[in-house]
Each structure stands twice: as C-alpha cells, then as structure tokens.
Specification:
Rossmann fold, AMP-dep_synth/lig_dom, alpha/beta, binds 5'-O-[(R)-(benzoyloxy)(hydroxy)phosphoryl]adenosine, GMP Synthetase, Chain A, domain 3, acid-thiol ligase activity, ATP-dep_AMP-bd_enzyme, about 30% helix, ligase, 5-stranded parallel sheet
C-alpha cells in the first residue's frame, strides 16, 4: 500500500528538532497550557459568546469526549465545513485532541468539491452548520453522508432539520469523561488542508503537529502577536492564512484573544475592532479598497489596530501605500501557501519594502530557489519559478504519490508555480504564475477542474479557462467555449449548469466566450497564452 503521506527525511527531521523548530507538543497543547497558566484570560469571542482559556479547554474536552463516544477514532478523518463560529474552533481542537484529522473545507465550496474531498480523505463524518436558502449546506451534506460509503455520521451546528444528523450541541452536552490525552507523535499529521490546486480534483495537504505549531508560533513572533494581541478573523477561519499566519492557532499559542467576524465587511469588522480592541487582522487584496473607503467615514475608533495583514493574491503597490495613512496602522504583506512557506514583510522594514514586495521567508531554515524553465537558479532581479523546502513545507500531498512527482523536485523542493523576482535584499515580488490556476480575489480556481465540468454542460465540445486582470477581483475567470452543434451556451446557461453539478459559485466563469476552435501549441495542447491575451483585451 502506498503511504498516505510523506514525512521529512529522518536526518532533516532531527535537524529541525535540534535547532528548536519542532517540539513534541501536539497542536491542542497551548489550550491545555493556557487553561493552567492563564485560565481567566479571554481566548475566543463569537458575538455575545466569550470563552476564557479555561472555558475553551473545557469545551474542547467535552466535544472531544462526545466525538470519541460516537465513535470517531484516532487517525480517522472528519470534514469540517463551518463558518467563523466558536464551534469551528472547538471542533477543530477537539478532533486534534482525540487524534482524528480535521479536513478543512471552506464554506464557499459546493457539494461537488465537498464530495470529492470526502472521497479523497475517506472521511467518517461531516460537520456543517445550519444555513439559509441556497447557502444552507445541510441538504447536500445529508445526501453526501448517505451516499459516501466512508461516512457514518453527519453533525450539524444548529438545527439538524430533516437531515438525520446529530446536533452539535449534543456533543457538548454528552458530559462524558474527557478521553485520555492522545500520546501520538507530534510528527504525524494533525489535519488536512485544501490545496488551491491545479488538478481536476482538490488535493489535500497533510500538516503535522510539529510543523503547523512551528508555523503558527514563528508567525506570531514575526507579526508582533503575543499575550496582548487581539486577532480578528475576517477571512474564512478554515483558510491557512486565518489558521496559522499567525491567525487563530498562532494567537491562541501565545495567550492572545481571537475574535471571529461573521462576515468580511468593514462595517461589521470596525464595530468589532472598537468593541474588542482588535490589534491585528488579515485581508485579501480584493477587500482592501472597501476597507480604506469605510475608514474615511467610520465613526468607530480604530486606534487599537496595529497591523493589517494583506495576502492571498497580489496587492498592488498604490493600494499598499494607502493602507497606513487610511487605517493608522502598519501594513504587512503576506505571501503564503497552504503547502507551507510563509513570506512576510517585517514590521520594521522600510515603507518601500512593505509596499512593493511580498516579503521574505519566515524561518531561517526556509530554503528558497528561484529557477528558470530548466531548473537553473536565476540571479536577483530576474523572474523565475519559486521552489521551496523547509520545516513547515510539506514533502508530498495526501494520497497523491503521482502528483508529487510533478509538484516536488527529486530533492524535496515544492514547486510553488509562482513566478517571483528576488531583490538584492532577499525580498520576493510575485510577478506571475506558471501554474494553470486563476486567483480570483484570493480564491484559487484550478482551470482543469472547471474545464472538466464545462465539458459536462450540454452544447459544449471543448473549453479552456484562463484568468484576466480585473480591477476589483484582481483576476476574473474567462471561459473560451467551442460549441457542439449550432448554439453555444451563454454565461447564464453555463452558470445554471455548473451550479446544478454542485460546483462552488466562485468557480463559475465570470465570462463565457464562444470561439470556433481553441488555439493549439505545436504538440497539440491547448495554447493558453493567446487566450490570456484575448481575455485581457476585454
Ligand atoms: C494562501 O494560500 P493558498 O494555498 O490559498 O494559495 C497559495 C497561492 C500562492 O502559491 C500564490 O499563488 C498565491 O496563493 N498568493 C499570492 C500571495 N499570497 C498567496 N500571490 C501574490 N501575492 C501574495 N501576497 O493564499 C495564503 C496562505 C497563508 C498565508 C497567506 C496566504
């Protein structure tokens, strides 16, 4: 049987332990330690709910006991698709505590993606929240739970309705004795993250207790997050940026407070900044203009805010320069990836570096190379693909040995697919991409995945999806479609057909253009370069 995941080579792992990057603690350890050391301190705020470190640790114990009683066993996978609510944080750490692996699905995913994640992970349970109207994930989750052979349980935060699922509150109320502390190795996976992806089906990223914990703690240090920090989670909590850069895990690891925002609007967020004394928060570039505008007219006091992190896609230099003056705080650019590597501009970097680069690697043990098409290093100032390996960058995807051969070099470097320029100082500037992906407002869309769905739409004979520059989204997705028969389906027909197939709304092409044929390269592959040019011309 092929291995589910690839650990770091033994000598490399030893080096990371000896240099103090990795330790033996599991990811939930800071909650236990926090409860013992500063149990009264505020850990988590969700609306009117306020949990101290002692409260949070107790809730995690109770839900861990409830899950173990179902049973959910150590090593099993559980898919979480939850909004920014306290239940997300509690369930995440409860699963970690019993040694089960949370699979972190973003709320924006559609049933098709969730089903594919369940299949790849072999999840034994799904956890979703009651929602409204089209955004209610319960009916699809109930269907997936009934059809997927691996799934034994559906757990619903809120009212399970007619799903046949179990109410999350019942886990909390189970009142069973907390399970014995899991003694598993910290060098085993703690959870599975979703890759932005370039393939037809989403790929999973195994992150270990040791590597993820280090990622979170080191990030906290680089971002000035300590016991007095109040971190506002505006982006989806299940995204890696919100998890460990330094996010929820980094803030809780250093004794700070996490505040969950139910939505990313500046009006909601500014109210929370004032009420809770928020010191740091994180956005994707697409949200920044609305925040800057609202900052000019808000009556809320934003004086507590020290750092605004921006990352997930490229922030333009002009907008970057407006952040500090408009919000009265420091900008920090973050260029990260769920596979590992985090680059940050540092809080004491000169303004020019902060506003024109995407920062430099977090760890002294991060190895980065910028290479040409033949894999040869290029000098500073010359664009090339960024390769990386280090103490918190995976060596392979989950159950995907064939893909690994493409996405990793033989000596273990992850091929990021990002084109960067390294400055003389060692800062990175993201200038493009070699991977077949659209980065739509920070949400990653694998072109192949959408193309495969488009081929399932009646009337479509061939399709190619590319990104085009967009003033609001950064990039919008454009589908070039060759009709089968007389009429080519338009954007509305395509939208309806893709949603009916369970595709997430953000993956529906923003534009659909009919073409007689797709341009081909010399070897007969679809040539996306001319398509990108045409898409950009509008
Ligand atoms: C973050 O993680 P993912 O896994 O959703 O996406 C990673 C990819 C990168 O390979 C790059 O293509 C793009 O997103 N990206 C950026 C960027 N930050 C990420 N491109 C340009 N400028 C940036 N600042 O997006 C992520 C994970 C942790 C922290 C922050 C972002």
């Amino acid at each position: 049987m092929p291995q589910d995941w690839l650990p770091w080579p033994a000598d490399t792992a030893r080096e990371y332990r000896e240099r103090g990057f990795w330790d033996d603690r599991r990811l939930d350890a800071p909650l236990r330690e926090g409860a013992a050391r500063h149990g009264d301190r505020l850990a988590l705020v969700d609306g009117a709910d306020r949990l101290s470190y002692a409260d949070l640790d107790t809730c995690v114990d109770r839900v861990a006991a409830g899950l173990a009683a179902l049973p959910v066993r150590a090593g099993e996978r559980v898919l979480l698709q939850l909004p920014n609510r306290a239940e997300y944080v509690v369930t995440l750490f409860a699963l970690v505590r019993i040694g089960a692996l949370p699979v972190l699905a973003l709320p924006s995913l559609g049933p098709a993606e969730v089903e594919s994640l369940v299949r790849t992970s072999g999840a034994c349970a799904l956890v979703v929240a009651q929602g409204r109207g089209r955004a209610d994930p319960r009916p699809a989750a109930a269907r997936i739970a009934a059809e997927a052979p691996s799934v034994r349980r559906l757990i619903v935060v809120g009212d399970p309705g007619d799903t046949g699922g179990l109410a999350w509150d019942a886990l909390l109320e189970a009142g069973a004795a907390p399970p014995a502390a899991d003694a598993g190795s910290a060098e085993e996976p703690a959870l599975l993250l979703l890759s932005g992806g370039t393939t037809g089906t989403p790929k999973l990223i195994p992150r270990t207790h040791a590597d993820y914990g280090y990622n979170a703690r080191a990030s906290a240090a680089a971002c000035g997050v300590g016991a007095d920090a109040v971190y506002l989670a505006v982006l989806p909590a299940a995204h890696n940026f919100t998890m460990v850069s330094p996010g929820i895990v980094g803030t809780l690891a250093t004794g700070g407070t996490v505040v969950l925002s139910p939505d990313p609007s500046p009006t909601t967020a500014f109210g929370l900044v004032e009420r809770e004394g928020v010191t740091i928060t994180a956005l994707v570039p697409a949200l920044v203009p609305a925040w800057l505008e609202e900052a000019g007219r808000t009556a809320h006091d934003l004086g507590s805010l020290r750092v605004l992190q921006v990352g997930g896609s490229r922030l333009d230099d002009a907008t970057a320069r407006r952040v500090g003056p408009a919000l009265g705080c420091r900008l920090q650019q973050v260029f990260g990836m769920a596979e590992g590597l985090n680059n940050y501009t540092r809080l004491d970097d000169p303004d020019d570096v902060v506003c024109t680069t995407q920062g430099r690697p977090l760890s002294p043990a991060d190895e980065v190379a910028v290479v040409d098409e033949d894999g040869r290093p290029v000098p500073p100032g010359t664009p090339g693909e960024l390769l990386t390996r280090g103490p918190y960058t995976i060596r392979g995807y989950y159950r995907a040995r064939e893909l690994d051969a493409l996405r990793f070099t033989p000596d273990g470097f992850y091929r990021t697919g990002d084109l960067v320029v390294r400055t003389e100082r060692g800062d990175l500037v993201v200038v493009g991409r070699v991977k077949d992906q659209v980065n739509r407002a920070g949400e990653k869309i694998a072109a192949v995945e959408v193309e495969e769905h488009l081929l399932g739409v009646p009337g479509v004979a061939a399709a190619a999806v590319v990104g085009a520059p967009d003033p609001v989204l950064g990039e919008r997705s454009v589908a070039f479609v060759v009709a089968r028969g007389a009429a080519c389906p338009g954007r509305e027909e395509v939208r309806a057909a893709l949603l009916a197939r369970g595709v997430a709304p953000f993956k529906v092409p923003d534009e659909v253009r009919a073409v007689p044929a797709l341009p081909l390269t010399g070897v007969g592959k679809v040539d996306k370069r001319p398509l990108r040019e045409r898409a950009a011309e509008g």
